[in-house]
């Protein structure tokens, strides 16, 4: 069924929220300088080549040989510093192959990373993703140090709504439960009943046992959920700046060029895109679909780096790349990860007053999946 209602800040007499812009990184603090380890050598040497050869073998079909000598010294240094700092690296599926395959300890979509964050034994988590993901790890592990290599790695969805907006929605629709996409700030998570991801959004909505829910902030995920359930969905006017750029016309051109090509799309895409897809699912579900179906050629309608990561594993599947890059995910680089571990910089903090309610909404989602 279609969305029941669609709301945004303008419905409450408020201006649209600005999408997070590029702010300058903060300079190193005195404390960060004091706890710094020596910066490792970043020279390309026979020792570095030998130590990283098994890792380059994983990505050699997506990273040209001419580029690896510039990446390998960082890879070796990061993997050594992780042990020295008692750190684990969590990386989202949208990270570039040299991060995803060569330095990460745990990879996955937002749901997988949230679940795995509850199991981390190390004292330090380095979150290779965007800021709301690092906040989620901190919410679930308030006693651990959580670092993000670049705190400017934001999200158009997370910046589209605030906790105050959720309170206004509750006033307008008293008694209606609120489901927040995990792509939201801790401030929003603290105001809602339960979180969801694109992997489990339909399951979460139907678990509430009501005939009407509020879903924030992704209007396209909400439209997808509305098409999959009889529950009436009241949605917010947020959108992912990567997925909203895809169009149904674009996909039809791929089909005309090759009728046998398989198209798989993320539910953050507009409905006309999903209508053209052979499969719709979260990043984890998309990866599993490709690994299970093993199509000859596939178009992945999501952030471009994920196709590279899948291509590195499935070398006989041709990835057709309609390349929309997430500018926020691309702020995370090997150099910044190394910087985080050397200086323990850009530590993520969450207001203690909202940690408990935010954790409840995330844990309620995780417990539902468990």
From TrEMBL:
NCBIfam families: nadA, PRK09375.1-2, PRK09375.1-4. GO terms for cellular component: cytosol. Gene3D superfamilies: NadA-like. Iminosuccinate binds at residues 92, 110, 181-183, 198, 266-268, 283. It comes from the Bacteria. Keywords: 4Fe-4S, Cytoplasm, Iron, Iron-sulfur, Metal-binding, Pyridine nucleotide biosynthesis, Transferase. It holds the Pfam family NadA. One of its GO terms (molecular function) is metal ion binding. The keyword 4Fe-4S applies. Pathway: Cofactor biosynthesis; NAD(+) biosynthesis; quinolinate from iminoaspartate: step 1/1. HAMAP family: NadA_type2. The gene is nadA. Catalyzes the condensation of iminoaspartate with dihydroxyacetone phosphate to form quinolinate. Belongs to the quinolinate synthase family. Type 2 subfamily. It comes from Rhodopseudomonas pentothenatexigens. It is found in: Cytoplasm. One of its GO terms (biological process) is 'de novo' NAD+ biosynthetic process from L-aspartate. Its cofactor is [4Fe-4S] cluster. Binds 1 [4Fe-4S] cluster per subunit. It is an enzyme of class 2 (transferase). This is Quinolinate synthase. It catalyses: iminosuccinate + dihydroxyacetone phosphate = quinolinate + phosphate + 2 H2O + H(+). [4Fe-4S] cluster binds at residues 155, 240, 326. Its EC number is 2.5.1.72.
């Amino acid at each position: 069924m279609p969305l029941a209602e669609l709301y945004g800040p303008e419905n409450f007499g408020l201006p649209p929220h600005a999408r997070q812009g590029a702010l300058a990184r903060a300079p190193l603090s005195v404390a960060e300088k004091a706890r710094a380890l020596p910066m490792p050598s970043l020279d390309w040497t026979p020792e570095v080549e030998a130590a990283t050869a098994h890792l380059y073998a994983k990505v050699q079909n997506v990273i040209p040989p001419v580029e690896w000598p510039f990446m390998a010294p960082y890879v070796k240094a990061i993997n050594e510093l992780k042990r020295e700092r008692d750190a684990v690296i969590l990386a989202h599926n949208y990270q570039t192959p040299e991060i995803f395959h060569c330095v990460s300890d745990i990879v996955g979509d937002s749901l997988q990373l949230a679940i795995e964050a509850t199991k981390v034994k190390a004292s330090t988590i380095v979150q290779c993703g965007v800021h709301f993901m690092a906040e989620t790890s901190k919410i679930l592990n308030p006693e651990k140090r959580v670092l993000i290599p670049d705190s400017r790695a934001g999200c158009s969805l997370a910046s589209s709504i605030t906790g105050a907006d959720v309170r206004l929605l509750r006033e307008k629709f008293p008694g209606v439960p609120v489901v927040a996409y995990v792509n939201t700030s801790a401030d929003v998570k603290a105001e809602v009943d339960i979180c969801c991801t694109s992997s489990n959004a339909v399951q979460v909505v139907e678990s509430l046992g009501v005939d009407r829910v509020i879903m924030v902030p992704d209007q396209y995920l909400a439209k997808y959920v509305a098409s999959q359930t009889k529950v009436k969905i009241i949605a917010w006017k947020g959108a992912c700046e990567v997925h909203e750029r895809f169009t149904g016309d674009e996909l039809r051109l791929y089909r005309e060029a090759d009728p046998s090509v398989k198209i798989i799309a993320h539910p953050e895409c507009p409905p006309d895109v999903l209508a053209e897809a052979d499969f719709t699912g979260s990043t984890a579900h998309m990866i599993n679909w490709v690994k299970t179906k093993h199509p000859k050629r596939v178009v992945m309608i999501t952030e471009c780096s994920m196709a590279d990561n899948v291509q590195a594993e499935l070398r006989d599947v041709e990835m057709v790349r309609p390349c929309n890059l997430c500018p926020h995910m691309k702020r995370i680089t090997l150099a910044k990860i190394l910087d985080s571990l050397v200086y323990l910089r850009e530590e993520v903090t969450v207001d203690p007053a909202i940690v408990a309610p935010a954790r409840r909404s995330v844990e309620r989602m995780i417990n539902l999946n468990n």
